[in-house]
Amino acid sequence: MRSRMSPGSQEVRVGSRLDVGTVAMLRPRLHEAVESGDGDMIVDLSDLEMIDSAGLGVLVGTHRRALRAGRRLVLRGVPPRVMRVLAITRLHRVLRVELPVAAVA
Predict the structure, then answer these.
(1) CA 85, CA 56: separation in Å to the nearest integer?
(2) Got the DSSP string for 34-64?
(3) Where do the STAS domain residues begin and end (predicted)?
(4) Cα 81–83–86 angle (5° rounding)?
(5) How many Å separate Cα 74 from the centre of its chain?
(6) How many CB atoms lie within 10 A of CB 3?
(7) CB-based contact 43:62 (threshold 8 Å)
(8) How far apart (Å, rounded) are the C-alpha atoms in residues 90 and 96?
(9) pTM across the whole model
(10) From CA 99, how far away is CA 89, in angstroms rounded?
């Protein structure tokens, strides 16, 4: 996980897996990022290949923590496979997903 701050937002890039094997390491880093920044917290999922229910739980928990901190969690670069999982679980209605510029045009 890599983090980058810019005016009005903070970007965190997640690796290739967000599952039961990685959430124990990733959860505290995401929570720390929420607490240490301001503005939108952008989670870049463009490298994500695998997500399971534990990974979804971390995203929902981070979303809730961000709301309590007066921030907004935004998912960027969501791969189609992961977007299908978000749609099936209806989390695309809860979590803010940034659409690619080509999809908006």
Answers:
(1) 9
(2) HHH--SEEEEE-TT--EE-HHHHHHHHHHHH
(3) 1-105
(4) 120
(5) 6
(6) 15
(7) yes
(8) 12
(9) 0.86
(10) 18
Q: Tell me the two tokens of residue 98.
A: 């940034």
Q: Residue 49 and residue 10: Cα distance in Å, rounded?
A: 22
Could you tell me the two tokens for 25?
């390491």
- Closest Cα to residue 100, out of 76, 74, 73? 76
Q: Which residues of 22-37 are buried (b: 16+ CB within 10 A; e: fewer)?
A: bbeebbeebbebbeeb
Report pLDDT digits (tens) over 63-104.
Answer: 999 999 999 999 999 999 999 999 999 999 999 999 875 555
As given in the structure block, the two tokens for residue 36 are: 């240490």
CA distances from 71 to 43, 67, 68, 82 (A): 13, 5, 7, 23
- Residue the block writes with tokens 């903070």: 10
What residue type is assigned to position 104 of the chain? V
